[in-house]
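Dear colleague,

Thank you for sharing your sequence with our group. We've completed the structure prediction you requested, and as agreed, I am returning the results in plain text so they can be pasted directly into your records. Please verify that the sequence below matches your submission; if there's any discrepancy, let me know and we will rerun it promptly.
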Amino acid sequence: MILQVGCGNRQCNLNSMGIDFNVPKWSSRYPKRFIKGDVKNLPFRDESFESVVGKHIFEHFSRYKNERDLVLKEWWRVLKVKGLLKIVVPNSKCYSKLLIGDVWDMNKFSFMMFGSQSNEGQFHYVGYDDKSLVKYVLSILSKDNCKLESIEFGGGYMGFSRFKDFEIRSVFKKVK
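Please find the predicted structure tokens below.
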């Protein structure tokens, strides 16, 4: 089973379950595949999932009081041995290039870089590039227990597919 943390309106497939503090529109049709809850305090036993997926959510946790450290450890806790943790975040280097290259004006850059800020969960607190994301994750999770499986770039969502490095897609494996 796959756990999608902060699933938002992304509908879960038959092999996955979503958790978010906002109730998505599709959840009433599939009540066993969605839990209203806090991704910082998951209501699951240790080693419950083959995969934990966080798409465009990890940047929403701050350095303040080590919030992002605690979130990462919590997601790791519910991951089975040999399971995969997939973290997808915006690529801050791409965003910066779009601003410097005059593709985006400062207003667009600010909106994308710092979040839409339309509700409490919409703030981006930390920016990442591929190196900083990997370095951070490996510094928090035991290097004996965590292995980088892959890292790649993608075009993102919301019509940004033309930017081939818009988002960073990382996969870490729990080795013991």
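Summary note from our side: The helical segments are 67-77, 92-100, 106-114, 130-140.

Kind regards,
the structure core
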